[in-house]
Amino acid sequence: MSPFDLVIKYWLALAAGIVAGILPRGEFPARRRVALGLITALTVLSVQWLWPVEGAAAEATADEWPHLLNVLIGMPILGAVGVLFIPRQMLSLVRGFTLVVLGVGFVVSLALLTVPMTPGWHFQFIKDWIPSLGIRWHVAVDGISLWLILLTTFIGPIAAYASFGSIKTQVKELCFCLLLLQGAMLGAFVALDLFLFFVFWELMLVPMYVMIGIWGGAEKIKAALKLFIYTMTGSMLMLAAMVYLAWTHQRLTGVWSFDYLALSQVVLSRPAQMMCFWAFSIAFFIKVPMWPVHTWLPDAHVQAPTGGSIILAAVMLKIGTYAYLRFSMGLFPGPASSLAANLAGVAILGGIIYGALVAWKQADVKRLVAYSSVAHLGFVMLGLFGVTPTGIQGAVLQMVNHGISTGALFLLVGVIYDRRHTRLISEFGGIAKVMPIYTALFVLVTFSSIGVPGTNGFVGEFMIIMGTFTSERLGTFAGIHTIGASAGVILAAVYMLSAVQRVFFGPLTHPKNKGLSDISPREMVAIAPLVLMIFVLGMFPSIFLDRMKDSVAMAYDQFKTVSGQAILFADEQQAKLLPADTFSPAFLKGAPGVKEEGEPEAPPEAGDEGVQGAAPTRRDGVLADRGGDR
Amino acid sequence: MNLDPFLAASPLLVVALGGCLLMVAEAFSKHGREENDSRSAGPSGDLALGTAITLITGAIFSAGIWFVGPDKLEGSRALEPYLILDRFSLFFSFVLCVGGALSALLAGGYLPEHKLDRGEFYPLLIFSTLGAMMLAAAGDLLSLFLGLETMSLGVYALAGFRRASPRSTEAALKYFLLGSFAAAILLYGGALIYGATGHTDLAGIRAAITSTAATEGAANPAVLLIGVALVIVGLAFKVSAVPFHMWTPDAYEGAPTPATTFMAVAVKSAAFATLLRVLVEAFGDPALTSWASGWPPLLAFMALLTMTVANLIAGRQESVKRMLAYSSIAHAGYVLVGLVATIKVGGDAQASIMFYLLAYTASTVGAFGALILCGSRGAEAVSYEDLSGLGRRHPAAAMAFSFFLLSLAGTPPTAGFFSKFYIIKAALGAEHYVLVVVLVLNSVLSAYYYLRVLVFMYMREPAPGAPLARPMRSGYVTTALVLSAVLVLVLGVFPSTYLEIVAQAALASR
């Protein structure tokens, strides 16, 4: 392809880049202009790549570079180690290095889009890690995690860029945390080995803890500790349940494995199923967060620095919802199905409605946005609890939406906080007169957050509500649930718009607000990609839905089959292994038992010679379970 | 002459010989007798290095014989039942030597800095390590007692090494008195066991129990059970399990920090090794020791108590060293959970204990070492307040401290996490669900106080005029920290090899 062809193909990105480079008025150094142009071009390019290319699908299927995910996870983590070796005086180098690593990560992650997301796992990479326990480095994406990875790599550089604007102390530590966090979050989204998932899940916690603790507000230590203790309580219980599940698998098959694909074939006895479901789900509910374990979130958000808030809201909370979809529903479909109506009720009353009402009464803008997160994630969870293809698709889309719109909201709140060092709504009023561009952006993002048609929020919420209405799992309550959820949409408009009204409009009373400067080019650069994505998602949701619908359909079918099996089976006090043909072959690709591509036949002894003293006892697939008598 | 017995016992012999040589070297050196206190004149530098080399040699010999295979050496059984030189004791020799060597390196930095530079520290350390190695290898109640006393006498002296400090003296006295009581109780328990079975060697005791149980039910179970209980009490003192932990915080706090490290690492590991060997080899018989009777319920109760009490109290401490002391009690509780599981899952649980002790050794040496590194003479890091703002003032020291504390708290991908995971796995395999739940909740509790150090180092600024810890500079301490950091990371990220090793080291039970 000649350079000329390239220009023709990517004229849009090129033009956008040039315009963005020229546009800013006033004294603006050339270096900044080039950077601005590059960023804009890249953003437009990435949007361009989102569109499915006809004809290209067939040729691209073959080359899935297996190390792509390893590179995505490894680059930030190695980058974090690299930052430690840069002298702390060289501020711009530390910052530049971090941005480059995160930015390259985003570009690399765009390669995920070149592959059509057919059902099953893509970019799968498997390598033995601790063979004697069957623990493997098993990473892969499907249509669901694809969007969350892209969200993470997209938000990462923006959050870093935003943090550099406001955080001037201990920049080296900040960069270390940002990079480590990025690597851990990406790892959590792609890990298909429970042990590996747990490692990333916990690894994520420390940098976030440090970020809130060092650069946070007045109550930072309390908030950071609360975050850590809440999350850790959940995750330790999850660890125990995880080991129990692996142990049951070992008793049934004679082989240790922590692989998600292998463990989803295990159906525990009813009490054990319930216990393990709760142990996993409580960990995830804390992360989401769902009422009544949400109280760490407002504190964490209010105290966290802007960059930390963006990452926390945009990505970290999604790990809770994603993990519920992947692991709680995947491993324990029985309880997830039978408890659906109750959990959906909690999501609506405790999340959507209560969250909205509390948000309404907040005096602090950031706290308001934090509670709005509780409400929005209530929607996501509702979509998952309903378990309909539409609902799940809506939920996944809404995860991305929430990431973008709430990320943008926190960014904008950070802008005003940097100027006034307060976030109290009562301190403001009428600032639309002094900050017109900022106001326009804020109102736009608000619209996206409350789901005005044409913006991203609308599509997700609409699909979730539709999914809820048609859900079989919710049974007779579906109608009531739908009404409750719809009321939540109205409440969202009430609290967001009333806050916007009080902050931006009305008379400009406070003398300090009269001298506020409008949004700076730097802040503009950070917010622009998010605003662009709001419209792309809002107007062309199908490009997102198309890529996820096969994976969602597969997850849904599997959930239906397995939960049916599990319910049939529920009265027995025994654990059982489902036959492999219960699952679609695409799902089981890469599972430890499934041999392919000349993989040597591993006799069960090979895994056991190391650790187990006693020989594994293979029984007839069913054995007495004493697991319920905890 | 067949040299095989000597070869089999070579880790012990090397350490003993090295200790003698160092003692002579110390006596003939010019240091110490002179009045001058200047830092360069102290004997610590050479002696610390010599001690570390001796103990590392011991570790290398253990590893070497491991690879040859002790069962391939013909005379390796010549010293039985007094010393059993199997893979189990080789593994513990290795762990103890590594722990001792790292403690010696810490002392090489600590003693000169705090003007405690007297040469006798190092021979005492070596002979204590030797005692600990004997203890881990003992297969007879008599040699067990001998090893225990050899180990303890050295440690009593080490605890009181800061003669000028009343706290150190108090620590030594307390440790000595309670330790002696514990030893006496152990001896009494041994006597009762001998009375009930007519044997002092573990294999003989086991055989006697089995045969009497086969012929006439149980011979004299009450005497035997009391004997076992007393032996457990005696060893529980050494591992500082609640309710026999009272001496620990005071002794750990008063002793010079390298001695504390040694107590927390080597003494505890050796005591656990013995506990494991005695319980598995002599009393691992399900006829005597089922859940209805025998030691597992006792130990399970002790484990619950140890974890919970230690973690609750550790959260209330103001002194970092005392916090680490309570944390080491809590870790003993986690190991006890593994010990309870041995009765049901055998090798797996033993392997988990050994892996845990290795990981715990690395993390604890690191944590105490970082604490040493953070304080210099007159500006020691004692309370949390002293560490305020350290992350800004001395990022490297603070980062090292955080790393080891995160390992102790059990955060992946460190050794602390994987070892805890492995204990949980063993306990779940033995279906001790309550113990597992209490263990995981306790590790959440423990995160609180470990993180408190991070809070002070990174998130608090010192109050104006408050005394601050000023990190010292010492190549020895840094070396020890780097070695432990490598160990922590390797054990956490690539545990496979070590899992195989500990699996092989497990005692053949039942």
From TrEMBL, chain A:
Keywords: Membrane, Transmembrane, Transmembrane helix, Ubiquinone. GO terms for cellular component: endomembrane system; membrane. The keyword Protein biosynthesis does not apply. Pfam families: Proton_antipo_M (PF00361). It comes from the Bacteria. Residues 598-608 have a biased composition (Acidic residues). Residues 191-472 form the NADH:quinone oxidoreductase/Mrp antiporter transmembrane domain. InterPro entries: NADH_Q_OxRdtase_chainM/4 (IPR010227), NADH_UbQ_OxRdtase (IPR003918), ND/Mrp_TM (IPR001750). GO terms for biological process: ATP synthesis coupled electron transport; electron transport coupled proton transport. The chain crosses the membrane at residues 6-23, 35-53, 65-86, 93-115, 135-162, 174-192, 198-215, 227-247, 267-286, 307-327, 339-359, 368-387, 399-417, 479-504, 525-545. Its main location: membrane. It is a multi-pass membrane protein. Residues 617-630 have a biased composition (Basic and acidic residues). Residues 589-630 are annotated as: Disordered. It is found in: Endomembrane system; Membrane. GO terms for molecular function: NADH dehydrogenase (ubiquinone) activity; NADH dehydrogenase activity; ubiquinone binding. Belongs to the complex I subunit 4 family. This is NADH-ubiquinone oxidoreductase chain M. It comes from Chondromyces apiculatus DSM 436. The lineage of its organism: Bacteria, Pseudomonadati, Myxococcota, Polyangia, Polyangiales.
Automatic annotation (TrEMBL), chain B:
It is found in: Cell membrane; Endomembrane system; Membrane. GO terms for cellular component: endomembrane system; plasma membrane. It comes from the Bacteria. InterPro entries: NADH-Q_OxRdtase_suN/2, ND/Mrp_TM. GO terms for biological process: ATP synthesis coupled electron transport. The chain crosses the membrane at residues 6-25, 46-68, 88-109, 121-138, 173-194, 222-247, 259-280, 292-313, 325-347, 353-374, 395-413, 433-455, 476-494. GO terms for molecular function: NADH dehydrogenase (quinone) (non-electrogenic) activity; NADH dehydrogenase (ubiquinone) activity; quinone binding. The keyword Membrane applies. It catalyses: a quinone + NADH + 5 H(+)(in) = a quinol + NAD(+) + 4 H(+)(out). Pfam families: Proton_antipo_M. Its EC number is 7.1.1.-. Residues 138-446 form the NADH:quinone oxidoreductase/Mrp antiporter transmembrane domain. Keywords: Cell membrane, Membrane, NAD, Quinone, Translocase, Transmembrane, Transmembrane helix, Transport, Ubiquinone. It is a multi-pass membrane protein. NDH-1 is composed of 14 different subunits. Subunits NuoA, H, J, K, L, M, N constitute the membrane sector of the complex. Belongs to the complex I subunit 2 family. HAMAP family: NDH1_NuoN_1. NDH-1 shuttles electrons from NADH, via FMN and iron-sulfur (Fe-S) centers, to quinones in the respiratory chain. The immediate electron acceptor for the enzyme in this species is believed to be ubiquinone. Couples the redox reaction to proton translocation (for every two electrons transferred, four hydrogen ions are translocated across the cytoplasmic membrane), and thus conserves the redox energy in a proton gradient. PANTHER family: NADH DEHYDROGENASE. This is NADH-quinone oxidoreductase subunit N. The gene is nuoN.
